[in-house]
Specification:
The protein is an alpha/beta fold. Helices cover 46% and strands 17% of the residues. It has 17 helices and 14 strands. Helix 2 crosses helix 9, helix 13 runs parallel beside helix 14 and helix 16 runs antiparallel to helix 17. The longest helix has 19 residues. It is globular, with a radius of gyration of 25 Å.
Length: 424
């Protein structure tokens, strides 16, 4: 893994790292074409794309019943592990629930109501790996929030991943469809003969999925762009090289386009981590994917002049996953400077993999600097907030002049009159 000095990078190199995923026009145009075809042809287009992209002659688009069969057939230890992870995820997200409230503000009774979205669609990746964990992360918070109907799409395959289907059954998905990529997003957004359209789409995916979510968001809501995974580790000389290396490698095995960075003030640690990566990668079954990921120009080991500089870079980067493996003093310093990160992991014994599966926090997180403006999936992802108010005559009279004065200044005398009529 390449070692570079943070302050010696050229501006164009820094730009590549910060703006790591740029979708080219060819992908964008292809995605638009797929979406239009699904809108016009529905199930026919889904079957055609299953054959073209997944090499599957798709008979049943609705595969809901297969989830129950998968649940009955999977290994008991896997089943118990999924249930245990689901319990932890549910416990964490239940804590986020909010109650309706109304308070009296000098005669004005005002408050908020929290209601769940009616129908959501969940995208679960297939591709080079299957993600039953993503099913739990998307569906369980929605269930806790009270979402009425949950549909799930996942790429068609000659042999569907049984653990992913079982996870959908455990989590309580209402409908499951074999429809991956941009065509799956289009089907959720606009519906087909088989698939009902939804109000909101959530879930991570590759460039095609992320681009499709961008294209449909004028017609259906999305949580954010949850694209290819990324990790940034801040470490000092107290960090254990083999642990730091294992965290970088773990994220890199997701996909060839993963961004994996270590930022440290220690050249000695940098060299040891690079050596450890070579050793550990040799033992893993996805070595080829890891090697490609870690060789990307936006991945690497970056030596900073100080931990303060590392923290400032991390804040600018706004990582999906931020791991802080430093002394207690430096950890506090870094945390004070970080305001933009999807999920933060502190210390040696909080690997990103724990959050990926079973600690309870959500692993569907904003990528590509999305953490600058939003957090990860939570109960709020599935909630609509309505304000509510009741004013008595005395309360309205107290603000009457304020309302009518501002309304008249805007040239909206009808607004002002709607107040005055209540007193005339």
């Amino acid at each position: 893994m390449q070692i570079r000095y943070l302050d010696e990078m050229e501006e164009d190199q820094r730009e590549v790292i910060l703006k790591r995923y740029q979708v080219n026009q060819e992908i964008r145009e292809s995605v638009r074409n797929i979406i239009n075809n699904v809108r016009e042809e529905g199930d026919v287009a889904l079957r055609r794309y299953a054959l073209e992209f997944d090499n599957v002659e798709l008979e049943d688009i609705d595969i809901t019943e297969k989830a129950r069969l998968a649940y009955e057939d999977i290994d008991e230890e896997i089943k118990l592990s999924i249930k245990s992870a689901a319990e932890n995820i549910e416990a964490f997200h239940v804590r986020q629930l909010r109650e309706d409230w109304i308070e009296n503000f000098d005669g004005r009774e005002m408050g908020q109501r929290f209601r769940a979205i009616n129908k959501i669609g969940v995208y679960v990746p297939g591709g080079t790996a299957s993600y039953p964990s993503s099913v739990l992360m998307a569906v369980i918070p929605a269930k806790v929030a009270g979402v009425g109907h949950i549909s799930m799409v996942t790429p068609a395959a000659k042999s569907l991943n049984q653990v992913t289907l079982a996870a959908a059954y455990i989590a309580g998905v209402d409908k499951i469809y074999a429809a991956g990529g941009a065509q799956g997003i289009a089907a959720l957004a606009y519906g087909t003969k088989t698939i009902e359209p939804v109000d909101k789409i959530i879930g991570p995916g590759n460039h095609w999925v992320a681009t499709a979510k961008k294209e449909v968001r004028d017609d259906v809501d999305i949580e954010f762009i949850a694209g290819t995974s990324e990790i940034l580790i801040i470490a000092d000389s107290t960090a254990k090289p083999e642990i730091v290396a294992s965290d970088l490698v773990a994220q890199a095995e997701h996909d060839v386009n993963v961004a994996a960075l270590l930022v440290t003030n220690s050249m000695e640690l940098s060299k040891k981590v690079a050596e450890e990566i070579e050793i550990q990668t040799e033992l893993l079954c996805r070595k080829e994917i890891i090697d490609q990921s870690l060789s990307k120009p936006y991945s690497g080991i970056f030596v900073a002049n100080s931990i303060e500089d590392a923290a400032e870079f991390a804040e600018e980067y706004a990582p999906e996953h931020l791991s802080i493996q430093t002394s207690e003093k430096n950890e506090k310093l870094v945390l004070e400077k970080i305001g933009s990160a999807g999920s933060i992991f502190l210390g040696t014994y909080a690997p990103v993999a724990a959050g990926d599966y079973a600690s309870g926090t959500n692993h569907i997180l904003p990528t590509n600097q999305g953490a600058r403006i939003t957090g990860g999936v939570s109960i709020d992802t599935f909630i609509k907030i309505s304000t509510i108010q009741r004013l008595d005559k005395e309360a309205l009279e107290k603000i009457r002049n304020v309302v009518t004065t501002i309304a008249m200044s805007e040239g909206l005398d009808g607004h002002a009159k709607s107040i005055d009529h209540r007193f005339d």
